Amino acid sequence: MNPVIGAGIAVTFKLFRLTFRIRVRNDQRDRLVQRTGKQYALAILHAHQLAALSLSAPKVGAMVSRSRDGDLLMPLLRGNGCVPIRGSSGVGEKGGATALTKMIRHVKNGNPSVIAVDGPRGPRGVVQKGIAMVAIKADVPIIPVVLIPRRRWILTKAWDRMQILLPFTRVDALFGDPIFPAPGDSIDDLREKVAESLRVMELRMDPEEAQRCDRLCSKVAGSRRSKNRQAPSASGTIETLRDAENRVSDMSERTAA
Fold it and tell me: What predicted TM-score, i.e. pTM, was given to this entire model?
């Protein structure tokens, strides 16, 4: 990708950001960090990535796919104080193991993180395993958040219906209550909790878009949303927190090798 294009996008967004008005509800981030001494992993929808930059915290680690779209986002993220981490939140995706290991290390070092939980290729609203693995291994809560720009351009042909913020928009940000990994929870338990929180909040804040996406994405996703509740492994067992820790440890060893 031509670096001039990425730099131009970053400068344009930074100018646009000066015109944005942000309305935040139920933001418990600072209070949570003060009370627990821990950071957090923000869970957002892929469609809301640009809106999330409107209130990004300093040094927040952001997962960025190893794609041309990811290349475009790199200068934009750096220009807004984020720390880009290349790879995918989906286990088995290109660069996924390396990215998860780096993200876990980043959070353990005392920094927040943000992951577009249904990326990099969808289906929309189907939460991948990465957010749960980061929360478990780094021992931090997950905070779901939906961010709705009221003046926007929606890329209707994109799988996620990406939302482009227009100048002078108001961004409504609704944070969900923190989701803490608990002993006995499976990876898929956490995925389902995050997916349900995001679904409920988007229906509340942006009902028309949420319902449209449910209709469109159900053709692609089929029963995958409901499978999050079941998620049996090949041996018929459910992946536990200990299984997840072992999986991430194995990925770290392979990355180091």
Answer: 0.82
